[in-house]
Design a protein that fits this description.
With 135 residues, this protein is an alpha+beta fold. It contains 1 helix and 9 strands. The termini are far apart.
Length: 135
């Protein structure tokens, strides 16, 4: 009986586990990024990329921002700096470089963000700042 149970587990469970691992490692392939705009830093060494990430009909639009080297291409991944619900063309918040090392996102953080990093990078660290409420 134990041998039969082991065979069933091997035949049924192992393929399910393998399929789960494959789907997990390739999940980025089900999503896509559409660049809305790129904003270069004053020294042209970095850029802030504002984009929409779409993972299919069951997900809502999201505006995402990634900071990266100016020569880099946007990977098929989520934004590394800022993620909020809504389409980029409706994203009325200003994004601008205050200096070569500081990006400003003119949006009050209200807890609706999925991600709102304060910095990017470790060698050439970029500070990310946000608007503050005047109330």
């Amino acid at each position: 009986m134990k041998v039969l149970l082991k065979i069933v587990l091997f035949i049924v469970v192992l393929p399910i586990v393998i399929l789960g691992v494959i789907l997990h490692t390739t999940a980025g392939g089900m999503c896509g990024n559409e660049v809305y705009t790129e904003i270069l830093s004053p020294d042209n060494r970095h850029k802030a990329v504002i984009f929409q990430r779409d993972c299919g009909a069951t997900t809502d639009f999201s505006t995402q921002i990634s900071v990266m080297k100016a020569s880099a291409h946007l990977p098929n991944k989520s934004g590394n700096t800022f993620i909020v619900r809504g389409h980029p063309k409706h994203f009325s918040h200003q994004v601008r470089w205050l200096s070569n090392a500081e990006l400003f996102i003119e949006k009050d953080l209200d807890g609706a963000e999925f991600k709102a990093e304060q910095s990017w990078g470790w060698r050439d660290k970029i500070k990310v700042s946000y608007a503050t409420s005047n109330s």
